[in-house]
Amino acid sequence: MTADTVVSARWDREIHKTIITPGDYSVVPYEDSRCKLSLSKIQCKNDSGTCEIEPESTIFSPSFNGTVVIGDLDNFLDKDVELILQRMCCGESCMATIVYKNNNKELVKEISFEIHLTEVTEEQLISDWSWNRLYEASIHHKERGVLLVKEKRLVDAFRRFNKALKMLVAIEPIDPDIIAGEQVKEMIDLRVKLYNNLAHCQLQFNEYEAAIELCNLALKNDPENIKSLYRRCISLAGLKMYDEAWTDIQHVLQLDPNDKAAKLKATELKPMIEKLNEDYTNVIKKMFIS
Predict the structure, then answer these.
(1) For domain 4-123, which CATH number applies: 1.20.1250.20, 3.10.50.40, 3.30.450.190, 3.30.1300.10?
(2) Would the keyword Isomerase turn up in this protein's UniProt record (predicted)?
(3) Which of 215, 218, 221, 222 has its CA nearest to residue 244?
C-alpha cells in the first residue's frame, strides 16, 4: 500500500484513502463521468461498536448496481464517496475511510471500505462544455431538486438548485450570435425559478436574510414575479419588517387579486400594520402637544 492521502478535511468530517493497486493516471473521473465500481470489506462503527450506514445512501444500498455518474448523487455519504472517486484513476483499488464528528468533535461514525474503480467514461472538464450541455445539465439538476423538495430533503434539494444555478452562470457571457433571443428568455426564466427555489429552501430554515437576497435577485430579472414577491414578504415579516412586507403582499394582490396565499398573508399582516400606524399617529400627536 502507498501512504495515506487526505482527500478532504473539515471540522466535522475527514476523508482518507490509501492506494492498494494503482490505476491508469491518464483516465480519471470528471463531472458526468460514468463510473463502474465495487465495494468490499465495508465496516461502520462508532464508540459503541458496529452501527448502521445511512439507509438513504445509494452506493451502500444492497440494491446498488455498481454504476455512479459523478455529480448526480444526493445523499451526503454518497457525495463523500464521489470525492474519493474523483481522486482515483481507472483500474485503481484503494482503502477508504470517512470519519464523521459532532459539534463537540466526538466520533459519530467511522466508515471504512475497499473500493475498486473498474471503468470510467472519459469526459470533458466543465469549462469545456458547450452552452447547450450546460443548459441541459442545469435543467436536469433543477428538476431533481424539485423532486427532493417533494421528498422533504431540503438540504439535498438546495444543493441541486445551487448546482443548477452554477451551470447556468457558466454559460455567461451570452453571445447573441450563438444563442437566440428566445433561448436567452428561457435561461432567464430558469434563473428566476432557481432563485425562487433556493429562497424556498432557505425559508424552511428561517434564513430570512438569505431568502430576501435570493428574492431580490429573482426580482431583478422579473420585477413582477409573484413567487418572489410573496417569499420576500414572508421573509420580511419574519424579520418583523412589517411595512416592507405589507408593500410586497399588496403588490402580489395587485398582480393577482385571487391569490389565496397572498390574501391570507395580508389578513395576517393587517393588524400589525394598523398597530404600527396607530403608534406612529400617537407619536406625531405627542410632538405637537405642549
Answers:
(1) 3.10.50.40
(2) no
(3) 215
34-63 average pLDDT score: 94
Alpha-carbon distance of 213 to 235, in angstroms, equals 10
CB atoms under 10 Å from CB of 140, counted, come to 16
Radius of gyration for the chain, computed over Cα atoms and rounded to the nearest angstrom: 25
Q: What's the CA angle centered on 184, arms 182 and 189, to 5 degrees?
A: 95
The band of 4, judged by pLDDT with boundaries at 50, 70 and 90, is confident
Fold type of domain 127-284: 1.25.40
3-class DSSP assignment, residue 22: coil
3-state secondary structure of 285: helix
C-alpha span between 269 and 6 (Å, rounded): 53
Q: What is the pLDDT of residues 205-232, one digit of tens each?
A: 999 999 999 999 999 999 999 999 999 9
Beta strands in the chain (DSSP E): 5-10, 13-21, 34-46, 49-50, 67-69, 93-101, 107-120
Instruction: Report residue 48 as a C-alpha cell.
Output: 459503541
- Distance from the Cα of residue 272 to its chain's centroid: 34
CA–CA–CA angle 164, 215, 199 (5° rounding): 55
